[in-house]
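User: Structure please.
Assistant: Input sequence and predicted structure:
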Amino acid sequence: MISRVFHMMRKKQCVAAHCSLFHLASLHNRDNDSITTGKPAYRYIGGKQVAGSYRINPAITGIPEGDRKIINDFIIGREGLINLSSGNPAVEVPRFIRERVKEELDAGYMGYTNFWGIPELRKKLADKLKAECGIGADPDKEILFTHGVQEGLYIVMRTLLCPGDEVLIPTPHYGNFLFNTIACGAVPVFVPLREELGFLPDIRMLEEAITPRTKILIYSNPNNPLGVTWPEETIQELARLSCEYDLLVIADEIYRNFPFPGPPLSIASLPGMKDRSFTLQGFSKSYFMMGIRAGYVTGPAEIMSHVKHLHYVILLSPARLAQYAALASLDCPPGQVEPLWQEFRDRLSLLHEGVKEVQGMSCVHPNGTLFLFANIKSYGMPSLELSKKLILEAGVVTLPGTEFGSAGEGFLRLSVSSSREHIREGIERLKVFGKQYQKKRKEG
């Protein structure tokens, strides 16, 4: 009897939690009012086939789809396009790394590794974090090697967030900050990053957005999609705010090797921040091995023990070759990688100078990542519409700013992942389009 009552109580609790998640998710999904698939399905009950629909976790159906998918579908089958949208640099992995990975593959053994990452690798990551970022991290308790930064981002947020918790997101923002928030049943709270302030956060606006339910502040620095690197003064202000309001901080630093004149300040290195900060870094961008999926996260030991457990449930252990690629990256001769970082800085300057010559476009000076965020408000049309128009009439692929939240309306994200030749050609096509379109607007 006691067991049955307990089972009924648990069932009620689960239903209540499920309904609560559905309510939260439905707030952020314009196109989904149902928690079923909406398609005919069949289930077997008592050995008989019964028509019906499967119930889907509403926190998952509530995840919005970004404009990136629309653009990717739109360009299928179209020839002669210049792609200025991608975050996938067209560069070979440095030779030293390829050779080391090949040696490991040729050795023939491909067994599981330590669940949290090869101990030697975690020790080297701890040394790197200390030397380059000023973050002291215990390699055994506070560092986890992940399947790219994406996995690290999800498992940290999933570990920390409860339904109804609020996540402070400066916006325009990297799309997965929102997607993960919704997937965790939490509530995104957006704080606009204004172009007139150089896309630096307005600390007063952030403070006004904080409520008793605010748990996490999340951001990327250098910033994707904005292409700017927040200065030390800004990071120090964010640290002060986090300590004052007892916020946890997630800092995505995947592009930290590209800023000029130098890497950003890591918030976890500041007084009082190590025990409330999670720093995510990786090898995908800096060592041009996006498909290998090699990232890592560091944070306070007490919470990281739970993050590790979720990682184990999802992944068991990281991919062996990804870890040996990361080890090789840490030993890679500077002469094989630093010129590549400078090359992409130069490409970003090339793109910026070109965009300034396109009629109707302007942008904040970029100083980090592989992107810039171009203002296209003078064209008088939504970002997605202009992005499609550029594909059709100019043969140039861009990403609508709305891929990065509604605050990105009126902007396009442009990338330097293509070659210099493609960037120059793309700029020339944009110039021709801009001149013709602005002329038509004046005449009509």
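The chain has two domains: 67-92+335-443, 111-331.
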